[in-house]
């Protein structure tokens, strides 16, 4: 192998490794951001804790200020969850009912009974995620 071929091959390998690193890093960032978004949706109290910590660090709050700010965040969380629930339920409930109706039309009697039981369980779990309800 000539020297120029060796250099080209080395550069190609380095480029491939660099590209793999970029793709892996981007994938990791996307996974982290997705996880944080899911956490905020599934557990609003954890999201408030994360926001509070970021707020406290960004503005260099004293321990007293941190405590008061956390109380404000916690106090307002209930109202925010209620507003989200009201708006969300108003829009989602009719769509869920239509979806269940269309799915039930496809099923035989046995499947329909099993679907109704499972659907009811899923809906109960969905709406009970908000523990401040």
**How much helix is in the residues?**
over 70%
Please trace the helix and strand order, writing H or E for each element.
Answer: HHHH
Helix and strand composition category: mainly alpha
Intertermini distance: 73 Å
Beta-strand content bin: under 5%
Instruction: Supply Rg.
Output: 25 Å
Dominant shape: flat
What is the strand tally? Answer: 0
Characterization of the model:
The chain is mainly alpha-helical and 133 residues long. Helix content is 89%, strand content 0%. It has four helices and no strands. The radius of gyration is 25 Å and the shape is flat. It starts with a helix and ends in a 6-residue tail after the last helix. The model has no long low-confidence stretch (mean pLDDT 83).
How would the blueprint of this fold be written?
Layout: H1 3-42, H2 44-58, H3 63-106, H4 109-127
Helix pairs in contact: 1-2, 2-3
Key traits:
133 residues, mainly alpha, 4 helices, 89% helix, 0% strand, flat
Short description:
By secondary structure, the protein is mainly alpha-helical. The chain has helices at 3-42, 44-58, 63-106, 109-127.
């Amino acid at each position: 192998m000539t020297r120029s071929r060796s250099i080209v091959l080395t550069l190609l390998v380095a480029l491939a490794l660099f590209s793999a690193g970029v793709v892996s890093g981007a994938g990791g960032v996307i996974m982290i951001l997705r996880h944080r978004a899911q956490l905020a949706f599934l557990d609003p109290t954890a999201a408030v804790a994360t926001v509070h910590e970021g707020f406290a660090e960004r503005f260099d709050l004293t321990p007293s200020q941190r405590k008061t700010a956390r109380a404000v965040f916690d106090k307002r969380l209930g109202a925010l969850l209620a507003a989200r629930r009201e708006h969300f339920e108003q829009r989602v409930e009719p769509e869920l009912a239509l979806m269940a109706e269309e799915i039930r039309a496809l099923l035989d009697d046995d499947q329909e009974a099993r679907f109704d039981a499972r659907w009811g369980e899923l809906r109960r779990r969905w709406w009970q995620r908000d523990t401040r309800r």
